[in-house]
Specification:
Blueprint lengths: L21 E3 L6 E3 L5 E2 L8 H9 L8 H6 L1 H10 L5 E5 L6 H8 L3 E5 L14 E7 L8 H10 L1 E10 L22 E2 L2 H12 L2 E5 L2 E5 L1
Parallel strand pairs: 4-5, 4-6, 6-7
Antiparallel strand pairs: 1-2, 2-3, 3-8, 7-10, 9-10
Length: 217
C-alpha cells in the first residue's frame, strides 16, 4: 500500500511578495517563487526585530566617508538631476548613517528621514513626497508587497521611488554570492520580480540600471 506524506505548513513556503508557490533554490535556505521569480528566506529563518536591530547597530556607516557617499551616488545623482530643491523627499530606511539625507541637505534639498529602527517617526508616513530614496533597504523587507504598496502611496502624482539593491541573475553563482550571506537579506530580486512589482503594485514605468531601480507613478 502506498503511503503519501501529508504536506504541513512547514513544507509550504508562499512568496511574501505575490503569495504564490515556491521551490527550494540552489539547495540553500532560500526559495524561488514560481510567479514573480523573487528569491526569499522562509519565515522561520527571519531574525525578528530585536536581533535585526542589533545587527544594524554593528554597521559603521560614516556619512562623511567619501567612499560611502560614492556608494549611494547612483541614487543621489539621480535625485539631483531629476528633482529640484523645492520638491520634498523621504529617505526611507535611513539607518544609522543617513548619508543620502546628508548629501541632499548639503545641496539645499528638503528630505526627511524615516526608519522603523532608528528614525521611527511614523507621522511622516501620513505625508506625500515627490521622491523617495530607498538605498539597500528593499532586500530587508519581510513583507515586500505591503512595503511597496506603502511606498507607492507615499508618493505624490508623478512621483518616483529610487531603490538600490543587488539584483540576481543567472550569471551569478548563488552558492558563493556574498549578498545572500547577510541574514538580514531576506528577499532578493530578479529583473522579472521588478517587472512584477511595476505591473501589480501600480507603477507606470520602471528603469533598472545595475543596482539602481527607478519606479515612476
Amino acid at each position: 500500500m502506498l503511503k503519501f506524506k501529508l504536506m504541513t505548513d512547514k513544507d509550504i513556503h508562499l512568496c511574501p511578495l505575490c503569495n504564490s508557490s515556491s521551490k527550494n533554490f540552489c539547495n540553500q535556505h532560500f526559495y524561488l517563487c514560481s510567479v514573480c521569480d523573487g528569491i526569499f528566506r522562509p519565515r522561520a529563518d527571519l531574525l525578528g526585530f530585536v536581533a535585526e536591530k542589533k545587527r544594524y547597530e554593528t554597521h559603521n556607516n560614516d556619512v562623511n566617508d567619501a567612499r560611502y557617499q560614492n556608494f549611494v551616488s547612483p541614487i543621489t545623482n539621480a535625485i539631483l538631476k531629476e528633482y529640484s530643491k523645492n520638491e520634498s523627499g523621504l529617505d526611507f530606511g535611513a539607518g544609522t548613517g543617513p548619508v543620502i539625507s546628508k548629501i541632499l541637505i548639503d545641496h539645499g534639498y528638503k528630505i526627511k528621514k524615516y526608519d522603523p529602527f532608528f528614525h521611527n517617526f511614523i507621522e511622516l508616513l501620513n505625508d506625500k513626497y515627490d521622491y523617495i530614496a530607498c538605498c539597500e533597504v528593499i532586500e530587508h523587507f519581510y513583507n515586500p508587497k505591503k512595503e511597496f504598496l506603502l511606498l507607492k502611496n507615499l508618493l505624490k502624482p508623478k512621483g518616483a521611488l529610487f531603490c538600490m539593491t543587488a539584483i540576481y541573475d543567472d550569471s551569478i553563482n548563488f552558492d558563493k554570492w556574498y549578498y545572500k550571506d547577510d541574514p538580514t537579506h531576506v528577499f532578493i530580486y530578479q529583473k522579472e520580480t521588478i517587472k512584477w512589482i511595476q505591473n501589480n503594485i501600480g507603477f507606470s514605468k520602471v528603469i533598472v540600471k545595475n543596482k539602481l531601480i527607478k519606479f515612476y507613478l
